[in-house]
Design a protein that fits this description.
By secondary structure, the chain is of the alpha/beta class. The protein is built from 13 helices and eight strands. The longest helix is centred in the first third of the chain and has 21 residues.
Length: 308
């Protein structure tokens, strides 16, 4: 399987330099990354709103090694909140954050990440929007869920992400599928050992369906993060069986992938949110997009060959 190799490359400085310098890289990166600055991504947010779509915005960057970098990441999100306020888009755009950006892996990182993300959650709430805590590798999840629980005491709309490929996730879903919760389910995009995660796509898909049913049968707000037509159809059917109205769950897909499907689902009355990443530190995010789907890797390979 290529995915583990690509995910290993995501942690390699040598591969980072090689891929950054490859002639076709920019063409492919531009497919997944909406821009490098807030100002570059603003027209994309406005265009999405015009099409009846909502967005969740991710300022990319995970390799934080100092508290100062974590504060800078926090401030990048606060800048984003300011622009959303100016544009009156608070109700159409939320934010997704990775706690690794806010210093989670540093000494005293749990408390540091909580303090930094709280500032962003407070600012988001002030303009009528919210924040979802992205899931990262399995070693970070207990801290992420604890921070999520703490934030929800004052900001109950704060969301979190669960990953279908982890064995623990069915139990997490049962705990989280409660009134007022917002939970995004994804398959998972980190290299995880067989001791904690399913390794075969068919098993991951089955787990995804089981977990999504738990969320749909619960009293929270499920967010279906998938581009898989079969899982999207299953999600619709599970929602129908659970008696959910169209505004009681939503679909989420990545910017640049299956854009026609974004429009189709919105036209049918579904809430459709586009996960829109931007920023200069794109490498880790980009490599996970390649690992998730072979077609993405083929697209990248063709771009490099034709530009070389």
């Amino acid at each position: 399987m290529l995915a583990p190799v690509i995910l290993a490359a995501a942690r390699s400085d040598k591969m980072r330099r090689f891929i950054s310098a490859a002639p076709g890289t920019k063409q492919v990166v531009d497919r997944f990354i909406a821009g490098e600055t807030v100002e570059q991504v603003v027209p994309i947010i406005e265009d999405a709103a015009d099409k009846g779509l909502e967005v969740t915005l991710d300022v990319v960057g995970e390799d934080i090694t100092t508290p100062a970098q974590a504060v800078a990441a926090r401030d990048a999100y606060l800048e984003l909140v300011g622009r959303l306020k100016d544009l009156g888009l608070g109700e159409r755009a939320e934010m997704s954050v990775k706690l690794s950006m806010f210093g989670q892996s540093l000494e005293g990182g749990h408390d540091l990440a909580l303090a930094n993300v709280r500032r962003v959650v407070e600012a988001a709430a002030a303009i009528g929007t919210t924040v979802t805590l992205d899931a990262e590798d399995h070693t970070t999840l207990d801290s992420m869920f604890a921070i999520h629980e703490e934030l929800r005491k004052d900001f109950p709309q704060t969301g979190c992400v669960i990953q279908a490929y982890l064995f623990r996730t069915e139990d997490d879903a049962r705990r989280l599928a409660a009134a007022g919760s917002r939970v995004r389910i994804v398959k998972g995009a980190y290299k995880e050992p067989a001791s904690v995660a399913y390794q075969v796509k068919a098993e991951i898909d089955k787990a995804y369906v089981r977990i999504l049913k738990i969320l749909m049968d619960g009293t929270g707000y499920p967010m279906i993060g998938s581009h898989d037509p079969r899982l999207i159809a299953i999600g619709q059917e599970l929602a129908r069986k659970a008696g959910r109205k169209l505004d009681e769950y939503e679909f989420q897909m990545l910017y640049g992938i299956r854009s026609d499907e974004h429009i189709r689902l919105a036209a049918e009355g579904h809430r459709m949110r586009v996960y829109t990443a931007y920023g200069t530190d794109w490498y880790g995010y980009f490599m996970r997009r390649l690992a998730e789907k072979p077609a993405n890797l083929l697209f990248f390979g063709r771009s490099v060959l034709t530009k070389g």
